[in-house]
Amino acid sequence: MARPRGAVGVFLCILLGLALTLFPAPATAHHQGTVKAVDVSISETVPLPVNNWTAYTFSLNLGDEIKYEIHVTNGTAIDVYFVPPDGLQAYANDTALQFRLFLDIVNLRDFSGHFGGQTGSVSVIVDNTDVTQGGATLTGPVTVSVHLEKSSSLFLSGVILILCGIAFLAVAIAMVFILRRRRKAAEGPPPPVPYSGPPPSTHEAPPAPSPPESPAEGPPPPGTG
Prior knowledge:
Blueprint: H1 2-22, E1 32-37, E2 41-48, E3 52-60, E4 64-74, E5 78-83, H2 85-92, E6 103-108, E7 110-116, E8 120-128, E9 142-152, H3 154-187
Parallel strand pairs: 1-3
Antiparallel strand pairs: 2-9, 3-8, 4-7, 4-9, 5-6, 5-8
């Protein structure tokens, strides 16, 4: 009687193994993190457990830059990445081996500087994970002080403003010339001057001939008087 029970147990184990193979348990994300949208600036202290990250997303215009001050106050070195939207998506996906980035600063405890030269959505990732593209060795949880601020380049903004003013002035002058031409074309040629006879002659008429002079009277003949 013991042998059939043992055979049933073996059979059940085989079925369980097949079920686990065909229907594996849902996988959990190895890396976890949050994304925060930042308008102008943010200052906070972030606790990052092992394999955790936090991303701060800015919208940059031409001439904007991000000033960053990031310091690990408790724990070992971390990594910081500046990435575009598709880079953030690939980074957050555990199946992606690499992700596109603008700048990576790795294996440090203190980060400070300015990032610029890009427009559109830019995310700053504070990373305490074991991603293969990183440089820091994961040792444990960390606490990070984060200060990020978006600023604009005054010089570049002034240049852009001047160029826009010149372009506006050129367009205004061109519009004035176009309107003048259209107005002249709509008015047509001036009406003809009515005929008033030949113009008066500018030459003076020759003077009339003077009458012939009468012969001068001579002395009276002799014997008269």
